[in-house]
User: Which sequence fits this backbone?
């Protein structure tokens, strides 16, 4: 009898140790350490706790070639609701967790990785809040960085070349620069349309939305989703790949409800008006960002298109996006160039 | 009564206890220290920077409502962004009710001070400057409030912007006063905005002094109710150094004031002289647009009681089309005031409503030139008309802008 209760106690304390701290997600102040949330059973190895589910997006935002691992946490018994073409309306107490890292060597991922930061979006009572935790040298804990941090790091890319980057952990305000929609902080990725793909959960390979339905995270969705394509998959048309890339990289800000709405350049997947997509559109308040070019997109003339010029640049007064990038995304540049040339 | 007084005192004292003043001085960690302080501010707080030079590698930003961020003087607290490697502006403000005052932002890689979507922003005794003189590689805007309401720019200095020194875009309820804009492409520019008072400013040695513009394909357009008065738009003589593609790249060197595609603009009691191309132009938006909601024509423009001096003595025929066209039309005898005369087709045929007519009254011996669009379209007629008296009329003063 005594033994059983002791065992129960141990089991209980272990489970509670591995359970996400629901209270902490809602608290006004952020804890100093990432591990305090208990999102991971093993912080260093990033093994998620019970109820913390990994997910992937069909196309992902370019962040200086860093790799990203994403998880969603929805408190037990609660549900997110589907809104077409928008991010799910997650219930209070939810968390979106994203760890940024570089592999030591892209050609051989088993050589390990260097964790940079883990960004959190926490759905509090009043709305979403964003915060980032930067990983320490030992890679066993991540510490809150409200004012951001600069980390110089390097990795070997898939061609075997040494690459280095001045990686910026964003400050709290910079989080809002991208995650702002109608003046409120909003997630970018987890729209139903971006999740509509197969994911290899260890126990099964299954469409992510189906999994979320099975887990009762969401109700059944019965509508067409405007699913984008994986921009890296060249079995899709150039147009589809480009629009998917622009959507996930630019469309959260360049949308009528986003931070760049004053530009009139709208790049989200649902935009269909040529001028607002940048075709023969004159710049508004671009300054030297124009690079001496007359239009955002000059059909057939990639090297005279402001959009491409600003994607190539790494000058802070010129480059797009304005933050979160210090390197040029060569592969995407090639695709956009081909696209404009083909017009 | 006593109780009420006591309560007021309590409320006041509790407020002053909770509001903090934070004082920071320059050191090698200023970037992080100031950014962290800006993030940790709470409504009512004041962040004060001591006199000194502060150096930044990244842009800094403020997103807390109702705070004051101040320095110790326009020449004493200097924020240097010459070594900036990230951030599209020096200082970004995204919250409401903020006051910025008494510091300078130098050599930002993009815009110097940008304010987006603020409900209430006061910029007082600030300086934005690119210290290497007018250069295409300078940032676009010194002061750049956009999509904001209740905007005050008072006692500021803007030097060297490659677009506009002081630029207010897609905003409403705006006062720009007591400020100096020099060596920018555009000195002061009010664009796609409603209800702006621009007065007691000096705009000199820019390419163009004061611009009131409206552009198509934007969330807010149809700029209206702009009063430009008691300013000096003088000696604007800097070559246009805007990067190509920008609308201000079309402005010829030596332009005092341009009004383009707005309605209800009143320009009065200004000193306008020393502008080598033209002291004042009223023009239609010159590009094709498919935006059906956009009116490219200026209307209800009133120009009165200004003091015009010498102008048009050195027309910049190499920039844009305006100077070259005007030079040709005027046979070199450049006017003080130019209106391109372009009207919507129905108004060309059936006349313009009285309250939309251009009024030009009591501007001393200012000279004038416009084009008669019908004669312009027909052969054998000289479309040039120079009789300023035809535009004399009763002024209907626009209301004063009052900030909330």
Assistant:
């Amino acid at each position: 009898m005594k033994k059983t209760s002791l065992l129960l106690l141990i089991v209980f304390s272990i489970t509670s140790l591995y359970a996400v701290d629901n209270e902490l997600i809602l608290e006004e102040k952020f804890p100093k350490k990432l591990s305090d949330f208990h999102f991971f059973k093993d912080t260093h190895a990033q093994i998620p706790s019970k109820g913390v589910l990994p997910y992937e997006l069909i196309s992902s935002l370019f962040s200086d070639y860093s790799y990203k691992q994403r998880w969603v946490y929805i408190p037990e018994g609660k549900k997110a609701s589907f809104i077409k073409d928008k991010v799910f309306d997650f219930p209070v107490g939810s968390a979106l967790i994203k760890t940024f890292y570089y592999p030591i060597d892209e050609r051989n991922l088993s050589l390990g990785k260097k964790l940079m930061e883990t960004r959190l979006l926490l759905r509090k009572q009043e709305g979403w809040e964003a915060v980032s935790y930067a990983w320490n040298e030992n890679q066993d804990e991540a510490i809150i960085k409200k004012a951001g941090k600069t980390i110089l790091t390097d990795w070997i890319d898939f061609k075997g070349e040494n690459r280095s980057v001045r990686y910026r952990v964003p400050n709290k305000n910079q989080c809002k620069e991208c995650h702002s929609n109608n003046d409120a902080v909003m997630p970018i990725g987890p729209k139903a349309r971006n999740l509509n793909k197969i994911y290899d959960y260890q126990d099964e390979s299954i469409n992510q939305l189906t999994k979320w339905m099975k887990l009762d995270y969401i109700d059944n969705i019965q509508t067409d989703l405007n699913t984008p394509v994986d921009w890296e998959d060249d079995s899709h048309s150039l147009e589809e790949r480009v629009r998917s890339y622009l959507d996930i990289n630019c469309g959260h800000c360049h949308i009528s409800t986003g931070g760049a709405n004053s530009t009139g350049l709208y790049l989200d997947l649902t935009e269909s008006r040529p001028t607002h997509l940048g075709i023969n559109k004159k710049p508004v308040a671009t300054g030297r960002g124009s690079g001496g070019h007359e239009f955002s997109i000059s059909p057939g003339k990639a090297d005279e298109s402001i959009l491409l010029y600003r994607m190539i640049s790494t000058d802070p007064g010129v480059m797009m996006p304005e933050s979160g990038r210090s390197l040029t995304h060569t592969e995407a540049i090639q695709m956009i160039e081909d696209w404009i040339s083909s017009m | 009564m006593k109780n009420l007084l006591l309560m007021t005192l309590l409320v006041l004292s509790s407020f002053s206890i909770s509001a903090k003043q934070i004082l920071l001085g320059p050191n090698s960690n200023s970037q992080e220290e100031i950014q962290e302080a800006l993030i940790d501010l709470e409504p009512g707080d004041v962040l004060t920077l001591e006199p000194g030079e502060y150096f930044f590698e990244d842009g800094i930003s403020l997103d807390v409502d109702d705070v004051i961020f101040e320095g110790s003087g326009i020449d004493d607290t200097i924020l240097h962004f010459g070594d900036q490697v990230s951030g599209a502006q020096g200082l970004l403000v995204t919250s409401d009710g903020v006051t910025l005052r008494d510091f300078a932002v130098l050599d930002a890689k993009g815009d110097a001070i940008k304010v987006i979507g603020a409900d209430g922003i006061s910029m007082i005794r600030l300086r934005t400057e690119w210290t290497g003189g007018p250069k295409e590689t300078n940032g676009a805007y010194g002061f750049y409030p956009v999509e904001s309401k209740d905007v005050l720019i008072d006692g500021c200095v803007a030097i060297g912007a490659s677009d506009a020194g002081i630029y207010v875009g897609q905003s409403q309820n705006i006062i720009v006063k007591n400020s100096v804009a020099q060596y920018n492409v555009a000195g002061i520019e009010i664009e796609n905005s409603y209800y702006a008072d621009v007065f007691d400013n000096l705009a000199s040695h820019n390419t163009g002094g004061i611009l009131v513009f409206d552009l198509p394909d934007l969330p807010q357009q149809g700029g209206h109710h702009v009063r430009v008065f008691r300013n000096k738009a003088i000696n604007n003589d800097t070559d246009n150094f805007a990067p190509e593609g920008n609308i201000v790249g079309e402005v010829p060197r030596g332009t005092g004031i341009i009004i383009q595609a707005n309605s209800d603009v009143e320009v009065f009691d200004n000193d306008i002289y020393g502008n080598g191309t033209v002291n004042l132009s009223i023009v239609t938006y010159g590009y094709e647009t498919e935006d059906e909601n956009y009116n490219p024509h200026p209307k209800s423009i009133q120009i009165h009681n200004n003091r015009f001096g010498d102008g048009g003595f050195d027309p910049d025929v190499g920039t844009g089309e305006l100077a070259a066209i005007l030079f040709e039309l005027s046979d070199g005898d450049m006017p003080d005031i130019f209106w391109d005369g372009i009207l919507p087709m129905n108004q060309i045929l059936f006349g313009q409503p009285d309250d939309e007519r251009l009024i030009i009254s009591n501007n001393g011996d200012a000279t004038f030139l416009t084009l008669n669009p019908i004669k312009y379209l027909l052969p054998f007629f000289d479309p040039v008309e120079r009789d300023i008296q035809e535009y004399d009329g009763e002024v209907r003063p626009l209301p004063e802008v009052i900030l909330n």
Observations:
- Residues 2-214 of chain A form one domain.
- DSSP finds eight helices and 14 strands in chain A.
- Residues 148 and 170 of chain A are 5 Å apart (CA to CA).
- The first strand of chain A starts at residue 40 and ends at 42.
